[in-house]
Amino acid sequence: MIKMKRKRVCHFCETGTVYIDFKDERKLLRFLTEQGKIIPRHTSGTCAKHQRQLARAVKRARHLALIPFVADFTR
Amino acid sequence: MAIYESIVILDSLMPPKDIDAAVERFSSIITANKGKIRKVEKWGKKRLAYEIQKKQYGFYVSIEFEGEGDIAKELQNDYNYNDKVLRYLTYRFDKYKLKALRNAEKASEAVSSSAPVTETKPEPPAEADKEAEKANAPAEQPEESTVEEAPSSEEEKE
């Protein structure tokens, strides 16, 4: 198997985002799993600087009930 | 003086009058502590992502203010005392948010002053330079095209 080398680029760096707003939950949902967990950096490709900001935004949004802490995942 | 924002989730079953009264009380606390109110926003009734005190809906209000750190404590005392407050969050604008604010201000200034700027620039160069100006104008487009190119190059790799 040839391992595909695919360069992952930070979404926020690409779009030139300065501040990640916790108020628009739709944008944050892109970086959460179905259960509502934060997607790790090595999977999403977010850079360290933005991942730190993102984590803070997600945590604030969770506190304000914009995003669930745990989404029930019924099969 | 730092800029803060306080977001409160109130009981959505409150009559609108009471909500206004509560918002006024909070803003009066800020002004009493030498704070300056920048913005008051009512997001309205929203569905909560999870139940808080057995409630499915909440009324979101955000107050943006400028002032010293002790205002947040005073607000917190009041929020804790009030049964109608389901949740609250007061945070200080960090450097990223401030930078974003400054960028937004700059952009709005640029939009408002874009017409005079473009007029003043063409004056010094002679008529022959007009073609160069035309070349400058579409210079903004390549930025977009580079973004479009990026995904296509990835596809080639695949």
From TrEMBL, chain A:
The UniProt entry, under Gene3D superfamilies, shows:
Ribosomal protein S18 (4.10.640.10)
- List the record's Gene Ontology CC terms alphabetically: cytosolic small ribosomal subunit
Q: GO biological process annotations for this chain's record?
A: translation
Give the GO molecular function terms. small ribosomal subunit rRNA binding; structural constituent of ribosome
Under Pfam families, the record lists: Ribosomal_S18
What the entry lists under InterPro entries is as follows: Ribosomal_bS18, Ribosomal_bS18_sf
**What are the entry keywords?**
Ribonucleoprotein, Ribosomal protein, RNA-binding, rRNA-binding
- Record's family? Belongs to the bacterial ribosomal protein bS18 family.
Kindly give the PANTHER family that the UniProt entry links to this protein.
30S RIBOSOMAL PROTEIN S18, SMALL RIBOSOMAL SUBUNIT PROTEIN BS18M
**Function of the molecule:** Binds as a heterodimer with protein bS6 to the central domain of the 16S rRNA, where it helps stabilize the platform of the 30S subunit.
> Which NCBIfam families does the UniProt record give?
S18
The record's subunit annotation is: Part of the 30S ribosomal subunit. Forms a tight heterodimer with protein bS6.
The identity of this protein, by name, is: Small ribosomal subunit protein bS18
Task: Recall the taxonomic lineage recorded for the source organism.
Answer: Bacteria, Pseudomonadati, Calditrichota, Calditrichia, Calditrichales
Task: Point out the gene that encodes the protein.
Answer: rpsR
From TrEMBL, chain B:
CDD domains per record:
bS6 (cd00473)
Q: Which organism is it from?
A: Caldithrix abyssi
Query: What's the stated role of this polypeptide?
Result: Binds together with bS18 to 16S ribosomal RNA.
Alphabetical GO CC annotations of the entry are: cytoplasm; ribonucleoprotein complex; ribosome
Gene3D superfamilies named in the record? 3.30.70.60
**Ribosomal protein is among the record's keywords:** yes
Keyword annotations: Ribonucleoprotein, Ribosomal protein, RNA-binding, rRNA-binding
Gene Ontology molecular function terms on file: small ribosomal subunit rRNA binding; structural constituent of ribosome
The annotated region (Disordered) lies at 106-158
- Return the similarity comment: Belongs to the bacterial ribosomal protein bS6 family.
**Record's protein name:** Small ribosomal subunit protein bS6
Q: Where is the composition biased (Low complexity)?
A: 109-119
Composition bias (Basic and acidic residues) maps to 120-134
**Acidic residues bias: where?**
141-158
The Gene Ontology biological process terms listed for this entry are: translation
Q: Which Pfam families would you find in this protein's record? A: Ribosomal_S6 (PF01250)
